[in-house]
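Weekly structure sync, notes
Attendees: PL (lead), two postdocs, one rotation student
Agenda item 3: pending single-chain targets
PL asked that the sequence for the first pending target be pasted directly into the notes so everyone works from the same version. It is reproduced below exactly as submitted, 431 residues in total.
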Amino acid sequence: MTMDFAAALAYLDDHASYHKTGRIESPSTDHIETLSAAMGDPHLAQPVIHVTGTNGKGSTVQMISRLLMAQGLTVGTYTSPHLERINERIKRNGEPISDEEFAEQIAGVADLEMITGVRPTFFEAVTAAGFRWFADVAVDVAVVEVGMLGRWDATNIVDADVAVITNIALDHTEFAGPTLQAIATEKAGIIKPRSAAVVGATQPDLVQIFRDEGGATTLVRGDDFETVDNSLAIGGRALDLRTPTTIYTDVFLPLHGAHQGENAAIALAATETFFAAPLAEDVVHEGFANVEVPGRFEVVGVQPLVIVDGAHNPPGADVSASVFFGDFQPDGRRILVVGTLRDPGEMVAALRADEFDVVHACTAPSPLGVPGAEVAKAARDLGCDEVYVHDDVATACRAALQYADADDSILATGSIYVAGDARPALRASVN
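Predicted structure, written out during the meeting:
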């Protein structure tokens, strides 16, 4: 069949389950395997670097992609979720798939649904479309971000050359857990017999879980690679990075937060492992200098300082607050725009909402979004005095800006969905 972009979006919306209800089917890759087999297994058409982790996987994927591009390769990048447009999930050399190509790929998946009798979920359909497009445009390598956990994720039909685990923390405990060991076991599922595993977690019991999965080799943070120096610089971080082969010095990374320096070490180790060789220094410097991660502590305006961050769980929120209060040390009033998909008490506490002067609570734009009134109550319970409630993110952002002076600072966060709606709302107001 043929589709235009609007029809493709309508098809995906009709196949949304978790996006609407928060429920997923029994864990299995059977559907995506059947669809991919009918397409000729496009996920096997190129080597793959597969990335999972509780936090940092999106940033790490972008760093790896840029390093590969600096080496001269044509790189397919698959990520989720998107911030503003679904095309962002599927990229070739940093450029999103066009509306027309996206519609063509989704139409192909829809045809296979009729032929195979397999009804894919939203994520399975987009994943299949991404692999199909990468094969069509003949990328040299695909860098693929896991959607959730790992073992039963739709992306895990790939046979990863390099399997990357950024870190392990408690998240998605409705599907795995409740222990770190259980979550690590699910994420270890991306390691295949021929995979080189690059592990950012350092806890010995978790590292052993990844070793026991049976990859070809295992590199571990601290033993085999690390961030030797991680200093604040104008517009980002100044890094010294050690890999199994080389120490790279004076590397500039245009991202905010010490955690991004830690992500850089694992990205560099993974890329070296892919090539089984060190990278030229100019490749490393060029690759990191070109990294962009929209919605991850992204500065979208100054005077007032306006920051958007997609922190979506308590560990990520804690990092976001640490960067905001530590690296930026705001002098004026501190204003928080926050919406969540999870326990608002945990999130506002991790964000240190009581250290903000004003809190604008809103409902995240998702069927799973916690009502803004509940987020506001959690902020008040924490001790916040000046708290306002808004029905949506854009209204909260406009209210935050309306009364912000030039020396004030605004942080909009709590969910990737909040970040996605905040970016255009804030850009329109500050530009």
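Discussion points:
- Residues 99-116 form the longest helix (18 residues).
- The radius of gyration is 21 Å.
Action: rotation student to compare against the earlier draft before next sync.
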